Amino acid sequence: MIVLDTDLSTLLGKLNISQTKMVEMYSMMTVDEIVEAEAAQGNQAAVQFAADLFTNVDKLVEIFKLADSNNKFLILSTMTADKLQKFLPLMEEEDLMQGFYYFTEDKLMAMLKELPPEQLVNTVFEMFSEREVIQLMPNDELNNFLTSTEVDKDNVLEHLKSIPPEYLAQMIEGVTGEECQGKDTLDMVKQISEFNPLQYKDALTTMQPVPKQQLTLSLAHEHKELYQLFSPDAYTNMIQAQKQKPDVVKAMNVIEPEEKIKMLEELPNDLLSVVITQIDAKVFADTLINRFPEVLAEIIAG
Description:
mainly alpha, 23 helices, 66% helix, rod-shaped
């Protein structure tokens, strides 16, 4: 049974019932019982009102005070998870966002890892600049990036031309074990291009941190989709080390609605019910009428 705080004064007015009659005859009755009794006595307003409760959104909101979040919660708390989830796509984005505060930070990170890579990257860039991302990225992630088959070798060589020549010389000397003779950038890049695959990989992975970050940033900035090559763990570790939950939740605003809903469906029913109480009262009433008439019948009978 769902017992709500109903607006009986409005009900009296709708059915033309006097206050005296209400006290003497109906004080212990539910809305359903009052309407049924009046209809049996030939009160046409009661007959119409009974029909309206299952069809008229405004009357439902008014009588059962559905603008009151407590009343909405009492209804929602009786519903199963699959019913509750039906309300989420009907909610405003900013109201949905509040639900993420109910997750622990660890749970937020776990869910971020499961996002499509592009959406994870978009979320990260709500919190960090490109330069900050590369500076905070672990060395092994930079190595994996630079040696990935997704990163075009010719493009890497082109961007190497912007690296200070002293670093290029170090790369060559590290691989060949001999002092680099030429100091011309183009000649050195050409020499690197002629390394065998293992030497080429060693040249890139043994670069000094500063030029390695510079090269990675240059490549990723030119082709933003390359940021998706970094692992989800690298991004979530970065977020967890540098940002607080409010920063994370705010950044998650850029996640696509269907992904947000998928995440919020992981809340336990009691917390999910609290989130849904923020839904617009008329939308809530309309959903009860059109999708959950059995719940509505229980409310009216309560």
